Structure formats: C-alpha cells, structure tokens
Amino acid sequence: MKEVFEGIAKAAARIAEALEHDDTGYSDNKNSTGDVQLKLDIRSDYIVEEELSRIPTVRALASEEKEQIEPIRTGGQYLVGYDPLDGSSLADVDLSVGSIFGVYENSFLGANLMAAAYVVYGPRVEMVTAYKQNVELWRQDRGEFKFVQILRLRDSGKLVAPGGTQQYWYPHHKELIDSMFAEGYRLRYSGGMVPDLHQILIKGGGLFSYPGTTDKAKGKIRLVFESMPFAKVFEMAGGLALNDRGERLLVSEPKGHHDTSPCFFGSKTEIERAMRAYGNV
Ligand code: AFP
Predict the structure, then answer these.
(1) Which CA distances in Å does 201 have to 60, 99, 208, 264?
(2) Which residue's CA is the closest to the ligand 1 atom numbered 16?
(3) Which atom of ligand 1 is nearest to the CA of 222?
(4) Among the listed ranges 37-41, 166-170, 225-229, which one has the minimum average pLDDT value?
(5) Is 89 touching ligand 1 by the criterion CB < 6 Å?
(6) 2-150 CATH pick, 3.30.540.10, 3.30.160.20, 3.30.420.40, 3.40.50.2000
C-alpha cells in the first residue's frame, strides 16, 4: 500500500502545480455524467493515471472522468477508484478543491475498500490517508509530504455542511437542518466535499449531508470515487458515514462504478440525530 500512497503523493504534487499555472477554462469534452469537463479535470485525470499506472500493485483504475474501468496490468492486487479533481468548478474562483482515492481489492464494493486517501489543494496542500488503524494528516513541505498528526473526531461538533439544492429537499431534511441552525450550529459549505469534509474532520465534528432530493432521489455523490473513500476516513477517525436508510456506506454494493447514493458523514451525535430525522432509529 505504501507505494500506492507514494504514487498518490506524486500525482498530488503535479496537480497542485497544474492548479497554480494552468487554464481554468472548459474543454470541448463531456464526462460520463454529461458534465462538460474543465481542462483541469482532464489534466488531473491524466496525471493520476500516469502516476498510478507506474505502481506494480495497481491492476486497474476507475476515474470519475471516464466511463469505463481502465485495465493497467494483470496480476496487480489493487483497483483504484478516484476523482482526480473534485469540486473543479471552484478552481476559477480560487476556492479549495481536492482529489479523492479509494484503494479496493477484487471489485469496487465497500467491503473490499482497503484504504482511502484524499488531498486538499488550499492555501496549503494536505493529504489524509486511512489505512489499517490510523487516519493520518500529511502536509506538503517544499515538495515532500510530511506527517503532521493522527486525526480523531470528537463525539459531537458545531458545523453543518448541507449539500443539495434546498428547493428540492424533503421536508424532514429541511426540518433537520433548520433545527440544527436554530440550536447554534454554524454553516460551513463551500460546494467542494473535500474541503467541507476536511473542515469537519480537522475541527473535530459536525454533519456533512448530501441527501436524496425530489429531483435526484439518489443524490449526487458517487460511491466508488467519493463517498466510500470518505466513509473509510470518517469511520476510522471515530465518526459515522451512513446512507439515508441508516446503512453504513462502507457496506454498499454499487451495481455500476458511477452509482450515487444519499450520504451523511460526521460525528456520532449529529449522525444519530440525522438518522432520527429520517426515521431510522
Ligand atoms: P463537481 O466536481 O462537479 O464540481 O462537484 C463537486 C461535488 O460532487 C462535491 O464535491 C460537492 O459536495 C457537491 O458536488 C456540491 O454539489 P452542489 O453544487 O449540488 O451543492
């Protein structure tokens, strides 16, 4: 696994460079969901593929930016699902964006997720890795990622990051979020799940939700590239990561690698509260 994390670190350093210098405009291409790709999406996807395909233990890659799974070699142990530049539409306004990686064995099922990592490109470039026992924070320092600390969530927090178009929220979801603000929780939502979840993790707790809505019953966040890797990070840090039926995202069995699911991440108190609002407790 060490070499996979090293490949991710190399890709992250190159993506950070691209973010600093490259054009933030749109390309002429569309991705598998029909979104017009930014030039930075295409460049970041190329960088990740180039770096990870050099790793002898990587057998195949599945990118949010590509329709098909890309076989790399026979015999490698790992399948990597990744979103090379999540929240890329925030790059032109100079907000933080990120990359997300899930390292699977055999197939892209939650039960097969062996490790996860994400990178935040903000004022500093930080990487969080989740493997075996620990969730670790690393920070780029003169071209090299240096270990900073182990991350743990508290049992409750003060922040709420509520995704999805409010116009289409179900009434019980609106009641949940309104009740939290009425009790003093503070809004922290940038529109990039990497910095939004990173903030909840670093500040010790809170709730991030991207629910199913009346216009998108299964939400927007993709299981293989986004929510299952983050579920690994949040559970290992002592928090919870569930869907709207109260099931762990980490036992999800997506039928296709682009499948989406409603998702809730956070510390225990807030997730239990969300599940009560959804009638799951
Ligand atoms: P893009 O990668 O298309 O910019 O989407 C980012 C994202 O998947 C995730 O990072 C955000 O939490 C979520 O979308 C924001 O979506 P809304 O714009 O619907 O709030």
Answers:
(1) 30, 16, 10, 13
(2) 191
(3) 8
(4) 37-41
(5) yes
(6) 3.30.540.10
